[in-house]
TrEMBL record:
InterPro entries: AlphaKG_dependent_hydroxylases, TauD-like_sf, TauD/TfdA-like. The lineage of its organism: Eukaryota, Viridiplantae, Streptophyta, Embryophyta, Tracheophyta. It comes from the Eukaryota. GO terms for molecular function: oxidoreductase activity. Residues 43-321 form the TauD/TfdA-like domain. It comes from Miscanthus lutarioriparius. Pfam families: TauD (PF02668). Keywords: Oxidoreductase. This is TauD/TfdA-like domain-containing protein.
Length: 326
């Protein structure tokens, strides 16, 4: 039977270790042939044979030119993949639920870049897959650059073997000060009530403890201390080490009225991270990344075990939606 999907190449793609990154699929039939239901049926029928092997090999898959155009369509498309939803507990970004299992992506101001990170790498329960959807194309900029984690690990290990050795031995501690309510002007502006999905401090304590997080209450908020938590993980399914942390993001981007980024992340023994190595790691991430400009209707599926992502600044309008899966 002919496939509903056809491989495509984009100028921004890179070939990493012989595999195009990200994988890109477009409709095999001319545009407009078949509606949303046909697309969803094709996702269900070709998921195991075609789509998942691509995600496994490439780490990320872009679906372009399919008839999903609204948040509700995207919700149905995520559902068609059949992954279980992961509630957003413990994440830092301010987000709003749009429909079903779909949320806005980080709502921080357009002039701010969001540095590279694995989704929720600073907590023990993180999504294994995440979906992004372009509901409104940016006027300019606003790409979501992606980079292969095992490759970043490899480059860092070559450049800074002692640093990486200490990182693997000690892990990292992440510290973040949260207000009560959300602060949409900050990229890490989620207040404690929406972080722990409660207004009750005792329930927040309980949920934090489940994440292995310590809370220290202040007059107008709370300090959260997470770790030591591993900064390099072993990807069992692919048999390789990955750079699974939010070190560069925390050190360079966890900055607002309450938070000083230099204190936001330290080695697991409490000693400070070297600024020059953080800067060099930021450079490696930029050098190795791929940034595909968003088009309306794009669906990007990221394997959170393989790929870090970020966000470039943009000129509005831009509306990217997200969905997290266990």
């Amino acid at each position: 039977m002919a496939s509903f999907f056809r491989d495509a190449r984009l100028p921004q793609q890179r070939v990493v270790e012989g595999v195009p990154f990200p994988a890109v699929l477009v409709p095999s039939a001319p545009a407009g042939a078949g509606g949303l239901d046909e697309f969803l049926a094709a996702v269900r029928s070709e998921r195991a044979s075609r789509l998942e092997p691509l995600v496994r090999d490439a780490g990320a898959l872009l679906l372009r030119g399919f008839p999903a155009t609204t948040a509700a369509d995207f919700d149905r498309a995520v559902d068609a993949f059949g992954y279980e939803e992961l509630p957003y507990v413990g994440g830092a970004a301010p987000r709003t639920n749009v429909v079903g299992r779909v949320f806005t992506a980080n709502e921080s101001p357009p002039d701010q870049k969001i540095p590279f990170h694995h989704e929720m790498a600073q907590v023990p329960t993180f999504p294994s897959k995440l979906f992004f959807f372009c509901e409104v194309e940016p006027k300019s900029g606003g790409e979501t650059p992606i980079v292969l984690s095992h490759y970043v690990y490899k480059r860092m290990k070559e450049k800074f073997p002692e640093f990486v050795e200490k990182l693997e031995k000690d892990g990292l501690i992440y510290t973040r000060v949260l207000g009560e309510g959300d602060d949409p002007s900050s990229p890490i502006g989620r207040g404690w009530q929406s972080t722990f999905l409660t207004k009750d401090k005792a329930v927040a304590e309980e949920r934090a403890a489940k994440l292995g997080m310590k809370l220290e209450w202040t007059d107008d908020g709370v300090k959260t201390i997470m770790g030591p938590i591993s900064a390099v993980k072993w990807d069992e399914s692919r048999g390789r080490k990955i750079w699974f942390n939010s070190m560069v993001a925390a050190y360079t981007g966890w900055k607002d009225a309450r938070n000083d980024p230099v204190k936001a992340v330290t080695f697991g023994d409490g000693s400070p991270l070297p600024a020059n190595i953080i800067a060099a790691c930021g450079q490696v991430l930029e050098e190795e990344c791929v940034a595909v400009p968003w088009r309306h209707g794009d669906i990007l599926l990221i394997d959170n075990w393989a790929v870090l992502h970020s966000r470039r600044s943009f000129e509005p309008p831009r509306r990217i939606l997200a969905s997290l899966c266990k």
